[in-house]
Amino acid sequence: MAAPEIPADWPYRRASQHIQCGRHLWHVQDIGTGPLLLLIHGAGGASHSFRHLIPLLIGDYRVITLDLPGQGFTVMGPGTACNLDAMATDIAALAAQQLWAPFAIIGHSAGAAIALRVSELTPPKAVIGINAALGGFEGIAGWMFPIMARVLSRTPLIPQVFSKLAGTPRKVHQLLASTGSQIEPAGEAQYLHLLRMPSHIAATLAMMADWNLDALLRRLPRMTQACLLITSSADRAVPPEVSARAAARMPNALWQDIPDFGHLVHEEAAEAVAALMLAFLRRSEISGMAKT
Hints:
- It is built from 13 helices and 8 strands.
- With 292 residues, the chain is α/β, with parallel strands linked by helices.
């Protein structure tokens, strides 16, 4: 199982390693020392999504980022599923193999849902979601969108065709802007690299085709770990109200909004996001339980 080549200028390239666990060859970046923070990106992203957060966290924490199966530079094993439970189980198995004991699990968008599911399998002290995708599609989209994604994910050559059509600087800029975010040219170039990888497109489509949060959402009232849900008011992909409703259903959850940024707020305003995260993690009822 050959790993895809990681560009020399990829964020934190020197910290990259590939780890075989189960059927996947995981791309992992391990940086810093201290209580462990496990970072999980959203659908269609990769570890680079946290490039601006990492330097703000590693002064106090050990940060581990990974690419989801088939996305970024993780090679997905044959015959594996990309649904929520399967990915969370695979991540928990990787954590057990590597003796990771996360102090907190942090996820962006769909990665926040995965973080919550992983927390049920490998309990941390805290979970943080950034513009967490914790709601289902409404109305007709609730059944049509997954069906369309399923058809596309199983249609030969669709990932190659989509990669060619979307893998241009103009299309990438438009795609990112449609989420309400404006990021720097280097960040756009990294997303462009991902969209030019048919394997990344195929895995993202497979994840979207199998995405179902119904069981997880029903369990929210039973999730007792400390949880922070960070949103941004200009997010066009996941409205802040999604996190507000989820936080209201969880016993120990806090919702905080950062005005005027989009879905990729952690890339646009990393300092503001990190400030909320660090304050939350350092609260006496949490930090007193941290272990190095």
